[in-house]
Amino acid sequence: MTTAQADLAERLAKLALFADVPKHELEELAAHCEEARFGEGEFVVRQGDQGHALYVILEGEVGVVIDDVERATLSIGGFFGEVALLLDESGIADIVTRTPLHCIVIPADEVEDFLITNPRVMLNMLRTEARRVRTATEWHN
Questions:
Q1: Percent of the chain beyond pLDDT 70?
Q2: With CB atoms counted within 10 Å of each terminal CB, which end of the chain scores lower, N or C?
Q3: Domain 3-140 belongs to what topology?
């Protein structure tokens, strides 16, 4: 394991999504992921694109834009790309950076095994999805 991967595993451990994951499993995940950086105002994901990764925000903020309307803002610890990835469908939103963004990119072929091995992460994601549905429902009314 490289120093960069160990540092990334430590950063992930501080995020609520990964709070219950043992250190060695975060190190294994870090070994299979990449870090990505985007400038302010850049598209990270485009609505209609095929999902190929799960993105977890380490620094920065993004807007979730559906049909040219910003529906949500995500910041440190937030994640996106999961709907297209898990359903193997096209993305449902544009993800646009609001500030410079630093994120981890978990490749599609790593996500399912990681979630099955770490049911607490899957539960945390499910809770987040439930909050998003509730918020979307409230927004729509």
A1: 96
A2: C
A3: Jelly Rolls (2.60.120)
